[in-house]
From TrEMBL:
Transmembrane segments: none
Domain of life: Bacteria
Protein name, as recorded: MerR family transcriptional regulator
Entry-linked PANTHER family: HTH-TYPE TRANSCRIPTIONAL REGULATOR YFMP, REDOX-CYCLING DRUG-SENSING TRANSCRIPTIONAL ACTIVATOR SOXR
UniProt-listed PROSITE patterns: HTH_MERR_2
InterPro entries, alphabetized: DNA-bd_dom_put_sf, MerR-type_HTH_dom, MerR_fam
Gene3D superfamilies: 1.10.1660.10
Keyword Translocase: no
Start and end residues of each stretch annotated as Disordered: 1-21
Species classification: Bacteria, Pseudomonadati, Pseudomonadota, Alphaproteobacteria, Maricaulales
Keywords: DNA-binding
Domain HTH merR-type: 22-89
Length: 172
């Protein structure tokens, strides 16, 4: 949730007097492929705090980095409270040692869960790659005869899946 971004870098066409990049709410939302309403939602929840001049909002690099983290956390299934808990620690709003230990333990549990998810994703990726390979082989062999029974494909997939399970049991 807190690593380098994979979104587009901030545009440099709008700058403040100090030379810092800045964006309107529409430009900011467009950079992330969301609506201005989505950006306002996160602002209402206290997760974003753009510069305000009357009704106008101006977003800066700090807002950009923060919103990347928010969206990454949401993609990974974190709640807004989870994301806020991380920001509270990062921004020094939590100084009580007991509360810091509690949050540290919670964060460690998240880290452990993410490691489990990475292993699950790797296994699923391998399984799906095998399925794609079986389908590709089937389509290559049967490109001219589309009336061939699809059960042949299912049989081949089951054979490949059993082979995978046997190999997996051997590594346990």
């Amino acid at each position: 949730m807190l690593t380098e971004s994979h979104t587009n870098p901030p545009r440099k066409d709008a700058q403040t007097d100090s030379g810092e990049s800045s964006w309107t709410i529409r430009e900011f939302a467009d950079m992330f492929g969301v609506t201005p309403r989505t950006v306002r939602f996160y602002e209402d929840k206290g997760l974003l705090s753009p510069e305000r001049t009357g009704q106008s909002r101006t977003f800066h690099r700090r807002d950009h980095a923060r919103f990347e983290r928010i969206l990454r956390g949401k993609r990974l299934g974190f709640s807004l409270d989870d994301i806020r808990a991380v920001f509270d620690v990062l921004e020094g709003r939590i100084s009580d040692a007991k509360e810091l230990r509690r949050r540290r333990d919670n964060f460690q549990a998240v880290i452990d869960g993410l490691a489990d998810r990475r292993r699950d994703v790797a296994l699923l990726e391998r399984d799906m790659t095998e399925i794609v390979s079986v389908i590709d082989d089937y389509l290559t062999q049967n490109s001219d005869d589309q009336t061939q029974d699809v059960s042949n494909l299912a049989d081949r997939y089951q054979a490949a899946f059993k082979k995978h399970l046997i190999a997996q049991q051997g590594s346990i």
